[in-house]
Amino acid sequence: MMTTLLIKGGIVVNADRQFQADVLCVDGVIAQIDETICAPEDAQVIDASGQLVMPGGIDPHTHMNFPFMGTTTVDDFYSGTSAALAGGTTTIIDFVIPNPQEPLLEAYQKWRRWAESAVADYSFHVAITWWDESVRQDMKTLVEQHGVNSFKHFMAYKNAIMCDDETLVNSFRRSLELGAMPTVHAENGELVYLLQQQVKEMGITGPEGHPLSRPAMVEAEAANRAIAIADVIGVPIYVVHVSCQESADAIARARARGQRVYGEVLAGHLVIDDSVYRDPDYTQAAAHVMSPPFRPKHHQEALWTGLQSGQLHTTATDHCTFCAAQKAAGADDFAKIPNGCGGVEERMAVIWDAGVGTGRLTPSEFVAITSANAAKLFNIYPRKGLIAVGSDADLVIWDPQASRTISAKTHHSNNDFNVFEGRTVTGIPSHTISHGKVVWANGQLHVEKGAGHYIKRAAFGDNFTANATRQQQLTPTAVKR
Ligand code: DUC
Ligand code: ZN
Ligand code: ZN
Ligand code: ZN
């Protein structure tokens, strides 16, 4: 059946410009954008006057249904993508994370099955957690047959999913050959392990030990190392959840030398600081345990200026939800608290409120960092991340005047906690449209289990290189003797 939706009277905001226009969506695709469009027969019409019409958000970093640290996240793909849509995010890029020795393709198929309940579009980065010839082969199959164009490397989580340098080097080289973007969780896992033991020897076993074991320098070391490895190999690199000034500086320095390095910032790191770990209530403090941890306040300014200046590119959430009962596993040892916090529903409104609402960002810059840049960096632009004829009709109608107060009592995640609890945000979605269908309107979800599509992402082409001139400098010439 044809579905026709006309959005009338709003201001279309793309990353490059904004203009007043009506938007007609037919069968899941944007069919027409014009100053005035007359409603076709049978069209559903939304009056968007006084509101902004933006590309639906893309959260390039979530973990739904993730088995991690002895338990599994409370959000599966159904609840997690429902929450996403309620917050204006219409696409997530989640992670396939094989256990060491687990064949990549088996892990990938497992995650694809788990994601069949998704109500919004989704895609997968695949983590490289171990190395042998089969991994090399499976990376090719994933790129060429399954639309995976990015691989993730955890530089932390020793004795679990951590990559050593040998695996990083092998995988970065393979990524370059295949035209796939290597991404890193930058924390030195060896140092985290050492500091966890030292902090516990000092008698600190509560959640306040978590940030002490993962200071900014631990992140910066890994960010610098990953960037250097990528530079030598000649492959671009994307650093996930940049949380501190030192990592942001490492990225800016590399970019100033001409290297292609990209940085992602989490909504939580922009507005929450490390005082949460000193809350006397264990449940409150443990609920904020994620890695990298929330940082002393001054780091937030570095993240904002990175986004404003274009040195940092995307925003995400690392949505990875564990409830109070799961967080209780670390009551006697902070290192056993399952790492992760939510945010997939709150990201857009929190960043609008703290970014556009304060004058740090324009609405177009907001679209860039919440949608368009992720679409470009992961090669799904302009299908996603743009309001244009032929693009997917994944849209958010944004009411810049409306406010709401965030609470676990009203959010759509299965979690019993919300790290943004009590925060009142101005600027929220009145409608979310996924595939030309209204899936969120005036506080109500209208979702259909399994309606989300798996999004294949093509490999990058011939100009996929960290920096061609620098690679030429590295090309050796034998000395004739
Ligand atoms: N950090 C988290 O807090 N959770 C999931 C994995 C990660 O890197
Ligand atoms: Zn991570
Ligand atoms: Zn993550
Ligand atoms: Zn779709």
Textual characterization of the structure:
This protein is an alpha/beta fold and 481 residues long. The chain is built from 15 helices and 21 strands. It is 32% helix and 21% strand. Strands 8-11-12-13-14-15-16-17 form an 8-stranded parallel beta sheet. Strand 12, helix 3 and strand 13 (150-154) form a beta-alpha-beta unit. Helix 3 runs parallel beside helix 4 and helix 4 crosses helix 7 (216-233). The longest helix has 18 residues, at 216-233. The protein is globular. Bound molecules: dihydropyrimidine-2,4(1H,3H)-dione (DUC) and zinc ion (3 copies). Dihydropyrimidine-2,4(1H,3H)-dione (DUC) is lined by residues 63, 185, 290-291, 318, 320, 339-340. One zinc ion binds next to loops. Belongs to the metallo-dependent hydrolases superfamily. Hydantoinase/dihydropyrimidinase family.
